[in-house]
From TrEMBL:
CDD domains: EcfT. InterPro entries: ABC/ECF_trnsptr_transmembrane, Cobalt_transport_CbiQ, ECF_CbiQ. It holds the Pfam family CbiQ. Keywords: Cell membrane, Membrane, Transmembrane, Transmembrane helix. This is Cobalt ECF transporter T component CbiQ. It is found in: Cell membrane. It comes from the Bacteria.
Amino acid sequence: MSGLAIDDAAWSSAWRRRSPADKLVLCLGLVVCALALPAWPGSGLVALTATVLALGPARVPPRTFGRAVRWPLAFIGVGALTAVVQVGGGGLGWAPDAAARAGSLTAHAVAGSTAVLLLATTTPVSDLLPALRRLGVPAAVVEVASVVYRLLFVLLDSLRTIREAQTARMGHSSVRRSYRSSGALAAAVLVRSWDRARRLQEGLAGRGMDTGLRVLPEVLPSSRAFLAATLVGLGAIVTAGTVLA
């Protein structure tokens, strides 16, 4: 059990066999459009396009995509709230253009987050990391990302095991016990993660692994039709977002 619904969705996506480079071109293009085009209608078109592609051709489960979007929306909401508050002689107050500023910030952020989630829910990390290496991302950065990705599942398994043990011992039967159990859970997971990372480093060093771990990545062919459709779609979004603004 992986414990990550996004990772499961990426492996079962209908776009799983598509080239990661093709999906990177699409999603990065959508992110650029979300940042460069006016909030209306540019960001709305980007968010709509990414959502339709994820739920339609990519066949990402709507429940998974919706749950993945809600956490970025929470951070966006907090960011928009802090961006429209100003400090003046009378203390805290709303900025004169609070509504327009909050709307613009929220629209750009939601559109960009939706485009990134399209990539996350259709491309497994094991496909994405080799593609980043081929695109010129430093090998050290890719290696650190790979190790963190692998350790994440170990930590999630530890978190689940400790949580089940606490629940079986009535560790969450009251608010006070839940507070104490949560603190103990965080401490235990932190210690385990530190110990597991140390043992992994010592093991690799003992085997002479002073360079990156060499593996044979799966090569997925690029699709000219997909790239052409991507360029046409991005062009249509740019045109509509510019003309209708």
